[in-house]
Every structure is written in structure tokens, then in C-alpha cells.
From TrEMBL:
Gene3D superfamilies: PPM-type phosphatase domain (3.60.40.10). This is Serine/threonine-protein phosphatase. Pfam families: SpoIIE. Keywords: Hydrolase. It comes from the Bacteria. Residues 168-382 form the PPM-type phosphatase domain. Transmembrane segments: none annotated.
Length: 404
């Protein structure tokens, strides 16, 4: 039976565009695999787009109400028998919380033993890591996961994003943007090291490519400042200067910056615009009110001041753009007035990676037809360091998600 090092060596030696073909050959030899197929989550995270053998095409598989979708949602291997002598295994392809897709492997029934399933699950994890590297050098995987054409503005925004999920010992993050294939100025970013996690949620004014170009400058200015190792106040100030130098106040970016101390749960925040921050603690939902400061780029040499609050193990934070909290129902009620809290309560047992999509699904059913602004949701489940987690079960951060 093929061992993990052999699969890893084969994938690492593979051409970037040929990872699935390489894995197919390795699993056929080592496990007797009858077929191997990769399904990639599309940009809207509503479908799994097949990436099969070269030259083949197949319809996307819906995430809802499919065996593949159930494995994708649960992040657990699933299997079903086909024709009595073949077993189909659906294995999550996930890297540090980022859900890339599903690897479907068909084995003869006599080869479908627990040891084989464990080996296939490891192979799916190795494939996920290699896909992340391969996307630097080939477009084939990004092409495969498009079930519709991206606008140019959306293309720019998706290339700027870090991922849709991330997990570590202390936290789990999930984020999503809609409309996925036509987003404009909303964006999010994160980075962590041994001591801190920094989050940025930005909303560039305007629409189309103009909004995307504005957001690109803001996010890269924030990254440039963050990578210099300076405080979030100075990160905001330097990004503000970069935007003002380019646009002279004619365009600006609403921004929320958060910096988490991983050891203590202390959070330093700079609220420079419209994104709102909400907290679910046990069964209590409240908006964390921060002192509003000027959006980035509105005035020359704005000085920013950080505020502090604390997160406790079990807390869930939700950051939403104005396209979410300000969206109105046909009766004229803003989504943040009551509906947002209802959705948070209803999804309190969901993992962080699933929360943004749940909120955006509810929002789509709630708002009137004219509320078509970009909608961004970012969820943070805070676990804290080992020994700091709550004993009470059933809270938002009850378990750490699989971070293969």
C-alpha cells in the first residue's frame, strides 16, 4: 500500500498542471483506485466544479444535497457503495482551514478498508498543499472552479484575497464576498505570527474597476506597513498617506483594523470607516462600539488612535460591510436591526468557515431587489491558548476545526 512519503514525492515532482493525473497514477498503483477526480469549490462556494482528466468536461456538483457537498460541509470523509462492488470515497481537500474542494476516489470494495481511507485522506491533504503552490505557475485550477465568468474588478479582488478560511490553535477564520463573480471594492486580509493575528476589512468607494484599483492600493499599503513591523495605528496612517497622495481626498477607503494578542486575547482596533463589528458571547449578541475615525485617504496626514477590548475563549466575532448591515428589507428595515442577530443565533454551532455563507444566504432572502451593494462577512472564532478554553460545551468555539 502506498505510503505518505511516496505520494508526497510524486506530487512534488509533478508538473503544476498535472497534479491530478500524477495522483491518479499513484493511487491506481498503490490502492487499486478505479478512478480519481478532483472537484474544486467555485468562487461562490455553492458548487464543486470537476477537474478531471485532460479534455473532459462535467457539470458542477451542488454543495447542497449531494454526497460530495456533505463531505465538503462536514469536512469528514464520506463514502457510498456503487453497484455493490465499488465504493466511492469523498475526501476533503483542506489546507489550514481553507476548503479547496473534494477528492473523489473509487476503490474496489475489497480494497476499501480503514487503513486505505486514512491513506487517501492524507493524500487529499498533500494534494491541497501542492495545489496552493501550483497556482503560482498555472491557471488550470482557477479556470476549472469558475462556473461563470469573473468581471475584471472581481478578478482583481479575488487575486488580492488571502483565502476564504484559516485556522490555528487560537482561532478559526471564515470569510466570503458576494456577488462572488462581480464584486467591486470590499476586501479582507489577515496575517499571523507567533504572537499576533492582524485582520483588515476594507471597503473602497465606488464601483467596478475604479473601486477595485482603490482597494488594491489600500490593501497593499497596509501590507507594506504591516510587514515593516509597525503598530496598527501607524499602518493606518501610512496607508492613509499613500491613498491621499494618489487621490488627494477624492476617493477613500473605509477600514477596520484588528490586532489580536494570541497569548492574552487583548485586541487593539482602529475603526476608520464603515465595517461593523459584532460579538456573540454565549447567547448574547452585541455590537462592539468603537470610536469612529476618518476613512483612509480622506484627509492629509490623519492621526489614528487604537482602542482595546478583550475576547474570551468561546467568543465569536463577526465583521460585516455596509452592504450587509445597511441592506433593507422590502418593508424598509435594515438587516442589522434584528435579522443579523437572528442569523447569528441560528448558526451559533456552525464552524467559522460556514458562517459567512449562512449570513449571506439569509441576507439574499431578506433584502429588497435594489440592495445590490457588495456584501462582505468575516467570522472569527476565538479559542485561546490551551488551558484557556471554556469547559462549557456548545459555544461557538467548542472544537478546533480540522486544519489539514
Amino acid at each position: 500500500m502506498t505510503q505518505r512519503p511516496e505520494v508526497a514525492r510524486a506530487l512534488q515532482a509533478s508538473a503544476p498542471h498535472a497534479l491530478v493525473d500524477t495522483l491518479r497514477a499513484v493511487l491506481a498503483e498503490g490502492y487499486g483506485a478505479l478512478s480519481v477526480e478532483l472537484l474544486l469549490a467555485d468562487y461562490g462556494a455553492t458548487a464543486l466544479a470537476p477537474f478531471g482528466a485532460v479534455g473532459t468536461a462535467a457539470a458542477p456538483v451542488p454543495v447542497a444535497n449531494s454526497a460530495e457537498g456533505r463531505a465538503f460541509g462536514s469536512q469528514q470523509p464520506r463514502q457510498r457503495s456503487r453497484h455493490g462492488d465499488v465504493v466511492e470515497h469523498h475526501l476533503p481537500v483542506t489546507v489550514r482551514g481553507e476548503r479547496t474542494g473534494i477528492l473523489t476516489v473509487r476503490l474496489p470494495v475489497e480494497r476499501s478498508v480503514p487503513e486505505a481511507v486514512d491513506g487517501l485522506a492524507q493524500a487529499a491533504g498533500l494534494l491541497g498543499h501542492e495545489l496552493m503552490v501550483a497556482e503560482r505557475d498555472t491557471d488550470v485550477y482557477q479556470r476549472a472552479r469558475r462556473i461563470s465568468r469573473l468581471t475584471l474588478a472581481a478578478e482583481m479582488q479575488w487575486q488580492l484575497l488571502p483565502a476564504r478560511a484559516c485556522s490555528a490553535e487560537e482561532y478559526a477564520i471564515g470569510a466570503h464576498l458576494e456577488p462572488a463573480y462581480d464584486t467591486h471594492g470590499d476586501n479582507y486580509d489577515w496575517a499571523s505570527d507567533a504572537d499576533e493575528l492582524t485582520l483588515a476589512v476594507t471597503d473602497g468607494m465606488g464601483t467596478g474597476v475604479d473601486a477595485s484599483m482603490l482597494t488594491h492600493l489600500a490593501v497593499n499599503a497596509l501590507r507594506n506597513a504591516r510587514r515593516a513591523g509597525i503598530s496598527i495605528e501607524d499602518q493606518a496612517a501610512l496607508a492613509d498617506q499613500a491613498l491621499y497622495a494618489q487621490y488627494r481626498g477624492a476617493a477613500y477607503v473605509s477600514t477596520l483594523l484588528l490586532c489580536f494578542d494570541l497569548a492574552t486575547g487583548r485586541v487593539r482596533a482602529v475603526d476608520a470607516g464603515s465595517p461593523q463589528l459584532w460579538r456573540l458571547r454565549r447567547r448574547t449578541i452585541e455590537r462592539i462600539e468603537l470610536e469612529p475615525q476618518m476613512p483612509l485617504g480622506m484627509f492629509e496626514e490623519t492621526h489614528y488612535k487604537a482602542q482595546e477590548f478583550e475576547v474570551l475563549p468561546g467568543d465569536r466575532l463577526l465583521i460585516v460591510s455596509d452592504g450587509v448591515y445597511a441592506a433593507h428589507s422590502p418593508q424598509g428595515e435594515a438587516y442589522a436591526e434584528r435579522a443579523l442577530a437572528r442569523t447569528l443565533h441560528a448558526g451559533r454551532l456552525l464552524p467559522a468557515a460556514d458562517v459567512p455563507r449562512a449570513v449571506l444566504r439569509d441576507l439574499a432572502a431578506y433584502r429588497d431587489a435594489e440592495s445590490l451593494d457588495d456584501s462582505l462577512v468575516l467570522c472569527v472564532d476565538w479559542f485561546g491558548r490551551q488551558g484557556d478554553r471554556p469547559a462549557e460545551p456548545g459555544q461557538a468555539a467548542g472544537t478546533v476545526p480540522d486544519a489539514r
